Amino acid sequence: LGRYDPGTVTTVRETLQGLPQSTDQAINALRVGDRVNTQALLADLRTRLNAVEQVFVAAYARERRLEESVRNQSHHAAMGGADLAAAAVLPVSIVALLLGLTIARSIVKPLRIMVPAIRKLSAGDTQVELPPVTRNEFGDMAQALRQLRDHSERLHSLAYVDPLTGLHNRARMEEALNAAIEDCRRTNQGCALLFMDIDNFKVINESFGHDTGDRYLVEAAQRLKRLAQEYGLLCRYSGDKFTVLIAGLHKNRDIKQQVQGIGEDILKGMSELFEMDGRQLQMSVSMGAASYPSDGARPEQILSNADAAMYQAKRQGRNNLQFASRELSDSARRRLTLASEIRRGLEASEFTPHYQPVVDVKAGRVVGTEALLRWNHPSRGIIWPTEFIPVAEDSGLISAVGERSLRMACAQVKRWRDEGRALSVAVNLSARQLHDGNLLNLLDEVMKTSGADPRWVTLELTESAMMERPEQSHVILTELRARGHLLAIDDFG
């Protein structure tokens, strides 16, 4: 290569030697969560690798043509030997053949290895064959390629492997789902996505600590690996959510029936007790399934519908498999839209408490109130809690909604007291507020800023919220009583 284009050789060598530094920059950007910069750096890497590949492809083609030319010349010389003296023909033929073999060994063979190696590295595949490190320009390039491969493996691990469980991560799943759908379009086959959520993981995590929670997740991942990996690509999507992408399903057979058997095997295997620190912990998953093409033509549709089916499995009592349907998809879209509207409504102060009177029947007078939150939607009018509270709970907005109700109710009871009305107010607390670790600090701050006395504020909790984690609930309720709050149990029994 160097004999024919030394300038190109220098450019290629410098480019390859600079690539490890570029991959280091991409690794650092990925570590700090700067995905925009990571994507830009990766795009630049691909551009430079593609340019190097084109140089090698052109050089390979050129050297193959030269090799063929030399071989043809030696062949013609040998064939014309009948018209020449044998003493003259034999040396020419031998020299020509040796020259051809030398070119093949020193130039064409390394190029034959380098071209696919560059192509694979550019595509993100680190399982490549590299040429040996020699004392010529190819040796320098081979050394640079080895450094690039090592850095690419680190980058691939950061980009596509979950550090806790060792499974593929969300980015790998989304990439694979997109590729699977493209394959299905070409091959007229089907694929399916199982979307799983570990049941009651939040209870484990908060009751026993995050270290125990991590060990619980690792155990769940190992079980899923044994149970599901043979069926398809297993990934940790996020938190306690996992996915299995099942490709190559027969469209002329019932895809739902094929997936049902896989799902039942996973559910059965996951339900075995897990012993940790002397405790017997129950493990199970709620599972949703969506398939291509019946449940969507795009990756985001398949993922959204499988997610909606998983939440339906949660509502059906957990530890079961539900399949996506049009009704579930429509419901999920409505809930997603409503969650977005709740966020906007909180910012626009559209949530206000209405006060239901508590009457002393014997005395015939109002002695207190219960704050019942209503949503005054700009286009739909009053929306009742039965519609927006479940969505707020599922979307993680319930704490913000509850805090808004608490602040407004405490400010109102202070105004009543200032007006000489000896009234109290009862405010509902959600299970998430009770256990999120911030309730006591929030109440202290609200009492201080509103000027309300804790004795004027009754806190209502459902029995199920308190019994979700009874030991932790007991500690918090004891603290609430010590601060002077009255407590009431809702939905008792």
Brief rundown of the structure:
With 493 residues, the chain is an alpha/beta fold. Helices cover 61% and strands 17% of the residues.
Structural commentary:
The protein has about 500 residues and is an alpha/beta fold. It has 16 helices and 13 strands. It has helices at about 5-30, 35-80, 85-120, 135-160, 170-185, 200-210, 210-230, 255-270, 300-315, 325-345, 385-395, 400-420, 430-435, 440-450, 465-470, 470-480; strands spanning about 190-200, 235-240, 240-250, 275, 280, 285-290, 320-325, 350-360, 365-375, 380-385, 425-430, 455-460, 485-490. Strands 8, 9, 10, 11, 12 and 13 form a 6-stranded mixed beta sheet that branches. Strands 2-3-1-6-7 form a 5-stranded mixed beta sheet, with helices on both faces.
Low-confidence stretches: 81-108
Number of strands: 13
> What is the approximate shape?
elongated
What is the end-to-end distance?
A: 85 Å
* Secondary structure category: alpha/beta
Number of separate helices: 16
The helix fraction, in percent, is 55-70%
Q: Return the average pLDDT rounded to an integer.
A: 79
| Helix-strand string | HHHHHEHHEEHEEEHEHEEEHHEHHEHHE
> What does the main sheet amount to?
6 strands, mixed
* Rg, Å, rounded: 34 Å
Share of residues in strands: 15-25%
